[in-house]
Amino acid sequence: MRTNDTLRNGCLSLLLILVILVIDQLIKIEVKTHFSLGESVRVTNWFYLSFVENNGMAYGMTFFNKIVLSMFRIIALLAIGWYMCQVVRRKHSVGYLVVLSMIFAGAAGNILDSMFYGLIFDASSPYTISQFVPFGTGYASFLHGKVVDMFYFPLIVTTYPDWMPWKGGEEFVFFAPVFNFADACISVGIVIFFLFYRHEMEDISASFKGYFKKKSHDKHA
């Protein structure tokens, strides 16, 4: 029964990851090949499809140069994947595995952009729409591709009061970041994790400690 549960949970996790990746990449490719850079389509007053690209982390944040960020993403993804393998083998709830799968798939979706988009697309610009090109002849080298973002939710658009120092009279947009489906999966997964699975942090710590302790023991055996 334990083996059947492990197989079922593993298949569920793999299926969810694949579904998220397919949805994420289909949306990105559709936007990349049909929108010029900076083009925006109004869906409602509070929802726009706005094509932007970024070199940074989720929601366009940037803390490191591109190659460092890409390597950090890959290492983090491998760590999450390793931990998920441990979770599949243990008696964890299906909900917890779903949350981890969402975070893993979201991270993988953005990594795919960095790894391959520079190799398979020509550059987007405000005046031209990007198209597929022969592999390796695109706008950037491996790991230097830009992440495609498109969801923009300006829920509140107003101006800062005139009396406010430095910002007075400037436009204020509540929730200004432009993001993609992968970012949304990561964010939703993390929120659910901290709301319902915070106690699992102890298990994460124990898993890594046990792994490195075993490695140390094997090394000195």
From TrEMBL:
This protein's record includes keyword Mitochondrion: no
Role of this protein: This protein specifically catalyzes the removal of signal peptides from prolipoproteins.
Catalytic reactions on record: Release of signal peptides from bacterial membrane prolipoproteins. Hydrolyzes -Xaa-Yaa-Zaa-|-(S,diacylglyceryl)Cys-, in which Xaa is hydrophobic (preferably Leu), and Yaa (Ala or Ser) and Zaa (Gly or Ala) have small, neutral side chains
Keywords: Aspartyl protease, Cell membrane, Hydrolase, Membrane, Protease, Transmembrane, Transmembrane helix
Primary location recorded for the protein, binned into one broad class: membrane
MF (Gene Ontology): aspartic-type endopeptidase activity
Superkingdom of the source species: Bacteria
Pathway where this protein functions: Protein modification; lipoprotein biosynthesis (signal peptide cleavage)
Pfam families registered for this protein in UniProt: Peptidase_A8
Location(s) in or outside the cell: Cell membrane
Annotated active site: 149, 183
Species this protein is from: Segatella oulorum F0390
BP term (GO), one: proteolysis
Gene: lspA
Membrane topology of the entry: Multi-pass membrane protein
Name under which the protein is recorded: Lipoprotein signal peptidase
Gene Ontology cellular component annotations, sorted alphabetically: plasma membrane
Family: Belongs to the peptidase A8 family.
Keyword Transmembrane helix on entry: yes
TM ranges: 7-27, 63-84, 96-120, 172-197
EC identifiers of the protein: 3.4.23.36
